[in-house]
Design brief:
Radius of gyration: 17 Å
Shape: globular
Low-confidence stretches: none
Strand order of the largest sheet: 1-2-3-4
Number of helices: 6
Oligomer: single chain
Structural class: alpha+beta
Helix content: 40-55%
Strand content: 15-25%
Largest sheet: 4 strands, mixed
Length: about 160
């Protein structure tokens, strides 16, 4: 179910970026119902999709918590589609500056660690937090929901 939610979570963007989580949940409900998925599984997937946006959602089940952690920790250079560095906006700069991004899960200690290596000549740590603070807070809520702890390490420094 988590893989399905991950695959479908941003389908609402075909309608609008604004409210995409909710419109995506409706689209997923219709598609998964037509495909014959069990209603209890549909509810898990749809609630995960509908709650994955940091501005309007929160982890409501294990599927949604896993989706939040995967989606909100996804920052990397290859996300940048603009090839004109001079035209980069803050999102392009921050993503482009991330040279390495690894989400590690220590199941025994229940610690989820996002380790980033950022080229601060391209984007400052402050710029990262400017656009990703609410996403990191959402990751912390997701880890809490799963009974774990979320940690962020940036350029080998643990952010506390």
């Amino acid at each position: 179910m988590t893989k399905i939610a991950g695959f479908m979570h941003d389908t609402g963007n075909i309608i609008s970026r604004s409210g995409h989580a909710q419109s995506g949940a409706i689209l997923a409900f219709n598609i998964l119902t037509r495909l014959g998925m069990a209603p209890q599984e549909i509810s898990q997937v749809v609630s995960a999709i509908g709650n994955h946006d940091e501005n309007s959602g929160s982890p409501v089940n294990p599927v949604s918590a896993a989706l939040v952690l995967a989606d909100k920790s996804d920052v990397r250079r290859s996300r940048v589609r603009n090839d004109d560095f001079a035209a980069f906006d803050i999102h392009d700069r921050v993503n482009y500056a991330v040279e390495e991004s690894v989400l590690k899960i220590d199941g025994e200690q229940k610690i989820l660690t996002l380790s980033l290596q950022i080229d601060t000549m391209i984007s400052s740590k402050m710029e990262y937090f400017e656009i990703f603070l609410t996403r990191m807070m959402m990751c912390r809520k997701a880890a809490d929901y799963l009974g774990g702890t979320f940690e962020l390490i940036m350029n080998n420094t643990k952010m506390v």
